[in-house]
From TrEMBL:
InterPro entries: BphY/WalK/GraS-like, HAMP_dom, HATPase_C_sf, HATPase_dom, His_kinase_dom, HisK_dim/P_dom, HisK_dim/P_sf, Sig_transdc_His_kin-like_C. This is histidine kinase. The lineage of its organism: Bacteria, Bacillati, Bacillota, Clostridia, Eubacteriales. It catalyses: ATP + protein L-histidine = ADP + protein N-phospho-L-histidine. Its EC number is 2.7.13.3. It comes from Allofournierella massiliensis. PROSITE patterns: HAMP, HIS_KIN.
Length: 489
């Protein structure tokens, strides 16, 4: 049996069982005592009305009074009109029967228990319940006569309990039946409820296992009614969707990186074979070959550098921040890119501001951010276009705007360009991690990278960083930030 069912049995059903059992027991107890007390009360009220008549009976002397009370009582016994329900008796001081409404003569072996109790009780009455000679359960009440009445010492009334007992058995059975029905109903509704949770959870566990084993196409039925299990199913489906998207992007990444590596390698191998046969170092092809090999090696080197820095970021390498001048850093990156920008037939538009803009950052990471963004601007621009760098600031932040007049990004690609391994439609060479690295570094520096673009018109990347106002010590965000990159795996 699974554990949710066990827990439910232990908590809910056990408590219901105890409550029902308690309620039924209290009902049975009050039923039994109430019924017997009712019978007792009925007999006592009859006896006391008879006793009351004795009080008004008088004679000329005490003896005569006693005699007339005795004969009054005997008459009462003879004329007792509820013989079918009760047996009315007069007892002497030994507890033996003087007269009885059933008319027979009766001798007890010893005085009845209720008579003995009445003799001793302060209220002069006693009650006993026993099985009669016929085996029938009866209740007897004895009340001592309050006034002398010849040899009559006590009035006694006996009645059968058969009807009362039968009624009680019926009611007890009814109460037990209702209790059992309540328990069965709560067990049934509980089992139904538990199944409605446990079954879908089994399904969830199976699907999650399948996903964990690598079957990323496994999906759960969509939870339509919006309850917790439905939401769990939807979340797992979403997770599987994200995983398969990541897996697809990762596969695309591997194939595009392999392709990117193969192109320069093919060129290098071709040129190596060519110059291997050239004996004259002054040969034009010899020099051309060497320069191409040199360029392609640089390209390979840059690419490997980018991959390495990405993997370092992923494994949570710490940033080494210190106070820097943003203007100087941007100018440095612009100078580095300038030759390439010109070589591609593009213009670099940058007016270096005169005043420094202090920030708290890791210089080499920041340079990587600028170069990645400018590299994209170069890759996606056509000759003749301009690449414009702007620096703005408000009270809290500085903004670097890198703007190109290139082909722009399609609106449905725009939301994905910052994802790892994502390459847009018609992407030129690249592994799809450039902007992911930019975003990760900017976030780690308490800044952000926003990209706006219009297809056919150009793209603007806005890099925001907080202005640093300290004098050498780390700002609050850097002190409180986790020491490692948030994406540590
Ligand atoms: P990569 O390292 O391959 O260049 P990025 O993460 O830098 O990858 O860019 C992701 C995608 O975003 C590119 O494949 C390209 O489609 C698009 N993109 C990025 N910058 C620009 C830009 N300035 N103009 C047009 N498209 C761009």
């Amino acid at each position: 049996m699974n554990s949710i069912t066990k827990r439910w049995l232990r908590s809910s059903l056990l408590i219901t069982f105890l409550l029902v059992a308690g309620a039924v027991s209290i009902y049975i107890y009050t039923l039994i005592s109430g019924s017997y007390n009712g019978v007792q009360q009925a007999m006592l009220s009859r006896i006391s009305s008879m006793g009351g008549q004795l009080k008004i009976t008088t004679g000329q002397s005490a003896e005569q009074t006693s005699q007339s009370r005795g004969s009054l009582l005997r008459r009462m016994v003879e004329q007792f009109d509820e013989k079918d329900k009760f047996e009315f008796m007069l007892l002497d001081s030994e507890g033996q029967v003087i007269a009885t409404s059933s008319g027979g003569t009766l001798r007890y072996e010893k005085a009845p228990e209720d008579f003995l109790m009445a003799m001793e009780s302060p209220n002069s009455s006693g009650r006993s319940v026993y099985a009669s000679v016929t085996g029938e359960r009866v209740m007897a009440i004895s009340v001592m006569v309050p006034y002398p009445a010849e040899d009559v010492a006590a009035l006694r009334m006996v009645t059968s309990l058969t009807m009362v007992d039968q009624m009680m058995v019926e009611r007890v059975l009814l109460a037990l039946g209702i209790g059992a029905v309540i328990l069965l109903f709560s067990a049934w509704s509980g089992v139904f409820f538990i199944r409605s949770i446990v079954r879908p959870l089994d399904e969830v566990a199976k699907t999650a296992n399948a996903i964990a084993r690598g079957d990323l196409s496994a999906r759960l039925p969509e939870g339509s009614d919006g309850d917790e299990i439905g939401r769990l199913c939807n979340t797992i489906n979403q997770m599987a969707g994200e995983l398969s998207k990541t897996e697809r992007l990762q596969n695309e990444f591997i194939s595009s990186v392999s392709h990117e590596l193969r192109t320069p390698l093919t060129s290098i191998r071709g040129w190596v074979e060519t110059i291997a046969h050239i004996r004259d170092p002054e040969d034009e092809n010899y020099r051309k070959g060497l320069s191409i090999i040199g360029r392609e090696t640089d390209r390979l080197y840059d690419m490997v550098e980018e991959l390495l820095s990405f993997s370092r970021l992923q494994s949570g390498v710490k940033l080494e921040c210190r106070p820097l001048d943003l203007v100087a850093e941007l100018t440095d990156a612009a100078l580095f890119m300038e030759a390439r920008i010109r070589a591609e037939g593009l213009r670099l538009v940058y007016e270096e501001p005169e005043l420094p803009l202090p920030i708290w950052a890791d210089g080499s990471r920041l340079r990587q951010v600028f170069i990645n963004v400018m590299d994209n601007a170069v890759k996606y621009s056509s000759p003749g276009g301009a690449i414009t760098l702007d620096l703005l600031q408000d009270g809290e932040n500085v903004y670097v705007l890198i703007k190109d007049e290139g082909r722009g990004i399609a609106p449905d690609d725009l939301e994905n360009v910052k994802l790892k391994f994502f390459k847009g439609k018609g992407a030129v060479r690249g592994s799809g991690i450039g902007l992911a690295v930019v975003d990760e570094i900017m976030t780690a520096l308490d800044g952000s990278a926003d990209i706006s673009s219009e297809l056919g018109k150009g793209t603007t990347v806005t890099l925001r960083l907080p202005i640093y106002r300290g004098s050498g010590e780390a700002p609050d965000w850097a002190v409180n930030a986790p020491k490692e990159s948030p994406e540590k795996e």
